[in-house]
Amino acid sequence: VTDESLVESAWELVNDFYLDARHHKWSPDLWLAQKEKVFQRPFQNRKAAYSAIREMLATLDDPFTRFLTPDEFSQTSKYDITGVGLNIGEVPDENGQIQLRVLGIVLQSPAELAGIQQVGQWLSLVLPLSSDLRFLHVQVRRSQCGDVQSYVLYRQQDLRSPVFYRLERSDVANERRGYVRLKEFNALTKRDLVTALMRLQASGASSFVLDLRDNLGGLVQEGIEVAKLFLDDGETVIYTTRRNNASLQSIVAKGQPFLRAPLVVLVNNRTASASEIMAAALHDNCRAVLAGSRTFGKGLIQSVFEFNDGSGVILTVGKYMTPAHRDIDGNGLEPDFWRMPGI
Description:
single chain; alpha+beta; 2-enoyl-CoA Hydratase, Chain A, domain 1; 3 domains; five-stranded mixed sheet; 16 strands; 28% strand; elongated; serine-type endopeptidase activity
């Protein structure tokens, strides 16, 4: 691949897929002018081509869009865990057994928030499941042939439960309510939340408070699955939109809800990402009221693209919209009450 064709490929990616979700200043004409500017000078070597790509991307003023050199992108060389920020590969261990090893994680990604903390960590494929091991279930995509395989990834370290709960006296006489705090959305959230709700119901709780304050998010898919626990069949959890989509793409609940009791969701300015998706889903479907302060406002979608020389670009390509068609990103969610209402 030539230096010129590499820069051309980077320009075309942005031209075809980039969503200017925050500034609303991007246009095909301005982007074409940027291309003409960088091509006014010859590219002496690959390093100069990389600099030209960075120069173009910098004009987008998007902190989530960035260029990756081949060394930086090599961590995604074989497997990509889509939407999680975790990249793994098959590597033989000291005994010659094929294991899965973490090749890279994106900083502040759901993978990092879920507890995977460093490059080089071993994730063993172990069957059958040992009762003293926690596990993550992920979809692994082979980059070379495109087929999808499902793996169960076990690891020795316990993933901490993000769920804390207790039984409280309700403001209504002779009634009790269940208080549940969700610290983050990781691979254990839905399972442990279901357990907490069952135990609180068995103890007499007739209403519930879900505390999402200071929950910065985590696994977006887990937040979606948790929201489905409270929604009726066919109700919209979230919409996604991309630049070239003629319409919003919806994610909907299926089946009957796990819980129908009255709900209050507590939020603040550190309620972000997956937490905002869940809060919006419950609020916009008239399933819960929000109490506290305005949420953080993080709702962008990024995709990773690889070039022929092994370099690549992480590009903002979409955003989330609430069931009521509200834009989360940069706006957040305004609560119904500034303090805890009686339920």
